[in-house]
Specification:
Blueprint: E1 2-5, E2 8-11, E3 20-26, E4 29-36, H1 41-51, E5 61-68, E6 73-79, H2 81-94, H3 105-111, H4 129-138, H5 144-149, E7 153-158, E8 164-170, H6 173-186, E9 195-198, H7 204-212, E10 217-220, H8 226-235, E11 238-244, E12 247-252
Parallel strand pairs: 3-6, 9-10, 10-11
Antiparallel strand pairs: 1-2, 3-4, 5-6, 7-8, 7-9, 11-12
Length: 260
């Protein structure tokens, strides 16, 4: 690359984030090709299967095999037959729906935008603003790819007091969240006790994925979208955004007495 400045141009070297195609294959049938950062791909595949509702639990995934190729990667997952039959039915339903994006009520239902309300958890810890601020302060030190490239997102799993326990990075914010959830699921972590902090805006797919996994709270550095707020409220999740410099905005959750 060439670095330009006032009155100069000189050659230089820089680290850039990798973007790599990864095919997700369930019981021998290719389901999706995703563009990801080529690391933690087994965790990514497990998280994707869970957050997209392909399987109902990590126990429905019997085996995960990763094959790296020069031009991409392939992750083969063996899943329970019931889950695979449901996936095949979903693929048949979606066949032929092209060119119109979200086409009314039927397509919205197929997208599964409305999550089930979070199940009550005995003894669930209250997530206080101080915990979110702690996570916001501590997460940058756990983002090596971001420091090297400046071009990736991070998803962190945090204890109720804000302690950052696990961090995953990827060029895609939803991929980072899938990697984090897959990583936690493989370790049989209880996702109902803690919260996710993300270095991104709060988009609907992030809230939907978190709600599907019964995660009680999502915090993001940047703004939420209207659909993200709506889904969080329907699911009974807490949604914190603009989390920085010891300030935040809560758009869904226990502290709201009226609409934002």
């Amino acid at each position: 690359m060439v670095r330009h400045g006032p009155g100069f141009a000189r050659p230089g070297r820089d680290r850039v984030a990798e973007e790599f195609p990864v095919a997700l294959v369930f019981n021998g049938v290719s389901h999706a090709v995703m563009m990801t950062t080529p690391r933690d791909l087994e965790a990514f595949a497990v998280g994707f299967a869970l957050t997209e509702g392909i399987v109902g639990a990590a126990a429905d995934i019997f085996d995960v095999e990763l094959a790296m190729h020069e031009s991409g990667a392939e992750v083969q997952l063996s899943i329970a037959q019931e889950a695979f039959m449901s996936l095949k039915q979903r693929r048949r339903t979606l066949a032929g729906r092209t060119g119109c994006g979200v086409c009314g009520l039927e397509s919205l239902e197929l997208l599964d935008l409305v999550p089930a309300p979070l199940a009550p958890v005995p003894g669930r810890a209250v997530i206080r603003p101080e915990a979110v601020w702690r996570a916001a302060r501590d997460m940058p030190a756990r983002q090596p790819l971001m420091r090297e490239t400046g071009g990736v997102h991070a998803a962190a799993w945090c204890a109720p007091d804000g302690g950052v326990l696990h961090v995953m990075e990827d060029v895609g914010r939803h991929n980072a969240l899938d990697k984090l959830i897959g990583h936690l699921a493989l370790r049989r972590a209880d996702l109902r006790h803690g919260f996710v902090f993300m270095s991104s805006r709060a988009s609907y797919e992030l809230v939907r994925k978190a709600a599907r996994m019964q995660i009680p709270a999502l915090a993001t550095i940047s703004a939420p979208t209207s659909l993200a707020i709506g889904i969080a409220r329907q699911a009974g999740m807490r949604l914190f955004s603009f989390c920085r410099d010891e300030s935040l905005s809560e758009f869904a959750g226990e502290a709201l007495a009226h609409d934002c």
